[in-house]
Amino acid sequence: MLLSTSDSKTPSLQHLVKIWAERYTVDVSSLSKNPKFYGELMKAALPEARALTASKLCNNVLYRTNSQAATQTKSLYEYIPEIIDSQLGQRINQVAAQVYQKTLEMYQQQSGLIVTPITRQITKENAYNQVSLSLSAIPNIEKLANELEPLLLKYQDQHITANDWRVVGFLTTLFNFSNKLLINQLTAAEKILLCPYFKFIEEEVALPWHRVCAAAAKHELGSPALNLVEEMFPVASEISSTVYCRLLQLFPDHRSRKGGLSDPDVAHSCLRDLDMFQAYLWLSVLEENIKPVEQELVPLCVMVMPSVGVKWEMIDKWKRLLIDEIESCVKLEHKLLLLDYTQGMEQAFFEARRRLGDRGEMIKIPSELGENLTFNFNS
Question: How many CB atoms lie within 10 A of CB 168?
């Protein structure tokens, strides 16, 4: 979940922020072979073109899109009709529109294209490297995060008002649906420039990457914990893709309320949530405490995943495959440090399932998070 974050300008934090920003870069190597489209992209990046894009999405169009997305989200989350009433739905929709409006303001503040060559290792054996052209779509990610933080905290606070953590899943899904509807209104060039901002909004609610960067401030450059996170942060999406493909092989017939594992919407959610597990793991490593997993990730999974048709067996396999893949990618010198936290994650989920048993029981959200809430969950 998102918590208020105070950034200190330490070298370790700034180094991790740079890695964070790379999540939202776009590979534009192929565009060099298409001068006409590259020219369209350059025009779309001009200040006046960015203003036109923002104007196209703002006001009534944006509000209608959010309303439509809210309707779609409600139909998915039919299991909480008593939670998302009309008044709460309207408040959520209004704050979501404000988040998009602020994002579009920030989008207009950038001008032109920032394209840099990036060298990526293609194989784990380092057989060869590949150089690609990367578009920095969000050049100042700290500023964007800080500008959006008050609105996103207000948006997230709706789950506290509703007294139910399942609303957090609703909030994330609303952004997911809104993003898709808004993207459909963009040209191909506008999509390249603006989609990273939409991705950032959705991730900022669900993935604590900003907190991971902030937690780096307590570590010196070269510390074992920071080195481990610096090694694994850039490959989070690659690890998620590998685990997702393995899940497809193991559970070809699995279906949740959203559909089968191979459905595009389900794939999107799976990849985002696999990234979320990794973000909480690295947050725990840098905070030198397993509490983020115990007090945030586990309660969220307990409340949301089974309620949308994801069984505990799937959660257990998901977690085990993810940990195995992470351990296979970590350098030998970091394996012992990693083990403390992967075992902590395993134990946290085991204890949660043991407490729930077959009938389910009361789940208490720790007061350290600013609430003192208790919910009932039936597995």
Answer: 23
- Using the structure block, give the residue that is written with the tokens 């060099």: 32
Q: Is the four-CA dihedral 163, 165, 167, 168 of positive or negative sign? A: positive
Which residue is listed with tokens 């369209």? 40
> Domain spans of the chain?
11-25+37-112+140-368
Q: What digits encode the pLDDT tens for the residues 148-175?
A: 999 988 877 765 555 555 566 677 777 8
What is the C-alpha separation between 175 and 266, in angstroms, rounded? 15
How many C-alpha atoms does 261 have within 13 Å on its Cβ side?
17
SS3 27: strand
Taking CA 204 as the corner, what is the angle to CA 201 and CA 206, rounded to the nearest 5 degrees?
115
Query: Mind listing the pLDDT tens digit for each residue in 328-370?
Result: 999 999 999 999 999 999 999 999 888 776 434 333 434 333 3
d(CA 346, CA 17): 28
Which residues, given as ranges, of the chain have pLDDT below 70?
Answer: 1-8, 32, 59-89, 118-132, 158-169, 306-309, 357-379
Strand ordering across the sheet containing 129-136: 25-27, 129-136, 115-121
Give, to the nearest 10 degrees, the angle between helix 86-109 and helix 166-183. Answer: 50
Which residues does residue 133 pair with via DSSP β-bridges, in sequence order? 117
Give the three-class secondary structure for 88.
helix
pLDDT at position 14 is 92
Residue 211, phi then psi, degrees to nearest 5: -70, -35
Cβ count near 357 (within 10 Å)? 9
Using CA atoms, how far residue 267 sits from 93, 176, 276, in Å, is 25, 12, 14
Phi, then psi, of 357 in degrees rounded to 5: 60, -150
Strands 115-121, 25-27: parallel, antiparallel or unpaired by DSSP? Answer: unpaired
What's the pTM? 0.84
Q: How far apart are CA 21 and CA 190, in angstroms?
A: 19
R_g over Cα of the chain: 21
| pLDDT value of position 7 | 60
Q: How buried is residue 197: exposed, middle or buried, by Cβ count under 10 Å (0-12/13-18/19+)?
A: buried
Kindly state the DSSP code that residue 295 receives in the 8-state scheme: I
Of 285, 264, 291, 261, nearest to 339 by C-alpha is: 285
